What does this fold into?
Amino acid sequence: MTRFGVPAPARCPGEEARGPSAAERVRTLVESNSSAVLSIPEAEPGEPGPSVVESRAVAATGDLFLLVPDTCPAARAAAHARDDEVTAVMEITDIAPVAVPHRVRGRGWVAGWLTVARGRAHAAGARLLAECGPMPGPGWSLLRLEAGEAYIDDLWGSSHVEPDELAEADPDPLARYEAELLQHLATAHGAQLRSLCALLDGTNASCAEAVTPLCLDRFGLRVRFRAGASCFDARFEFPAPVGDIAQLRRAMRQLFEAASA
It folds into this structure.
């Protein structure tokens, strides 16, 4: 089976696959810096296309607060709506932060009911968004998307996620550092990454032509190997899930030591 043009990954080392749940992956993607657009499925023909979401945050209830331009179709539709009569879909595209074949790692969708955030909801949403960075000046609308369902299609597979699962899930603790960590591994630890070939079976002995770290989460590291015109992924799981950078350093050291033994 292939996903996004790449063969499904081997699991190395370990017998049982461990990884984030679908709800955790959606929550991580929603709270990431990946590009997102907001569409109104029932928009009139000829209406402009999807609206770019400038920033977003997730409330404890699972509701999403979205910052969009005042002039975009989603903002206009929400401003003229009554209660929850406008349905909307936010699509997020996850692209690898390193140069690698087939850079799209996955896509996530959250569908629900769109309203303008007012009163206490506006204040709560503004506080959450302020934690992500400075709020822009005039010309922006703060919208609330009450999640009805979510869907993820990524390197792990595809799955539906219920609103209560999304609300209860936590984003991966390494997500905010992942881009920087992958770029550092790719530029400063090429030899150690190539050594991971030793942990693969004999059929992949020629994998060291190009080795690129692709994804990192608290459970392990996914690497993309290229040999000639073909490529494949392998996932290397940590002995135990990590919760911070210090634990990650120990886990990575153990992984590279196992590869060089």
Q: What stands out?
A: The chain has two domains: 22-169, 176-260. The radius of gyration is 20 Å.
